[in-house]
Amino acid sequence: MKRKALSILLAGAMLSTMLAGCGNTANAPAADNNAAADNTTTDAPADTTADATTDTNTDAAVDTGDEGAVLNIYCWNEEFKTRVEDHYPGYEKVDGTSGTIGDISVKWNITPNDDNAYQNNLDETLLNQDGAAADDKIDLFLIEADYALKYVDSDFAMPLAELGITDADLANQYQYTKDVVTDGNGVLKGASWQGCPGVLFYNREAAKEVLGTDDPDEVQEYVKDWDTFYETAETMKEAGYSMISSVNDSYRVYSNNVSSKWVVDGKINIDANIEKWVEDSKAMVDAGQTGTHELWSDDWSKGFYPEGKVFAYFGPAWLVNFSMAADQPGSIGNAGGWGAATGPQGFFWGGTWICAATGTDNPATIKDIILQLTANEDIMKEIVIADDDFVNNKPAMEAMAEDTSYSSKILGGQNPLGMYCDGAGSIDLSNLSNYDQGCNEEFQNAMKNYFDGNATYDEALQLFYTAVVEKYPELTY
After folding, report:
1. For residue 171, with 0-12 CB atoms within 10 Å meaning exposed, 13-18 middle and 19 or more buried, which class applies?
2. In whole angstroms, what is the distance from residue 170 CA to residue 164 CA?
3. 20 with 146: CB under 8 angstroms?
4. pTM
5. Are 383 and 72 in contact (CB under 8 A)?
6. Which pLDDT tens digit goes with each residue over 192-210?
7. I need a surface site. Which of 48, 173, 437, 475 has the fewest CB within 10 A?
8. What stretches of 257-344 show up as alpha helix (H) in DSSP?
């Protein structure tokens, strides 16, 4: 898809955004990530490798003399900026929106995701990239999985090979994180420092009260498949707990395990596993086992506290560490009251990918940022220890999964990295498509009417079709 085609796509599609993954301003790690985590390990970071950098002090990791004077970075929150400030060799913070790398001035353009503002700002600037002065052009921008192909399948994101990044450089990354940012011709156009495999976070006190144990292996037996999960949901309801806060909590587990794409030959397609989510969710709502709250709403968040009486939430590491009030006194997370189990099925949620903008005059600096933050094993471990993130490096994560001195305070001293590793290695994104963000969002919006008894299933389905075709006029149903 070239510039003309992308211009049409940018103008007519993706008019609203799901609050997905680490991109939501309400759920992404803030600058003080350690407020919500207290993890320790004896595996201290070593000197960074010579291949990625020759120094980890305040000297710039690359010779910036031949690079552009300004590095413009576009993102939606503070997360990536914090990673750069804390872990990229040679970065010097100037203030909240700027810094330096050697002779280069770094400018952070941060636009929240709310109401699609980030994508709208990014799109408008990219479309004017050719006529912009060198110091005003986007050099580096971030994307999320839900809309990654919108940019990856355009020529606005540079192939990483053109930066001099090889397959060997990224060999230790989880394959799914590369699949997300690989275009239709097999060209890799981005890299991520994190992996976001999902698990089931459960309320340990509720588990002990109702199931008689809070041991992760034993709790897993009560949620090991969907039939068992729903049997346990009835047990939890009888004890006064919602199994999950909302039907939307389980949506991504189902939608990540589909066998077909949202659109097939230009026609909207509802996979059997999506239909199964509707069937199972309706049964849960009618049985009083869960609610229909929107994610990130006040009602959805009540289960972060004991009085909310919610047994479990599905999510990746960032959810429990940074989005479930673990830094708030009185919350379950603050007391180390969550546990982690694999749950009925593997899935992933969110993630952030670094892309180089075509036309950048800072290719060497961008190359080094990508290599340092997504491929340097020592810096990867550093991020895990300091930020409680699950990083995109298999050897680093496998080593820390075996490290008995590493644990999560939020998870009551549990080391969950082993189950994250297993989940990250099994993620299949073969059914990813350009339409995922809009279809997933509109489907959940429409089905809420059905779950709440305000529409029949067929009426809710028609609401979905109408909304999607309005968003993507080229589609039929």
Report:
1. exposed
2. 12
3. yes
4. 0.83
5. no
6. 999 999 999 999 999 999 9
7. 475
8. 272-286, 298-301, 317-322
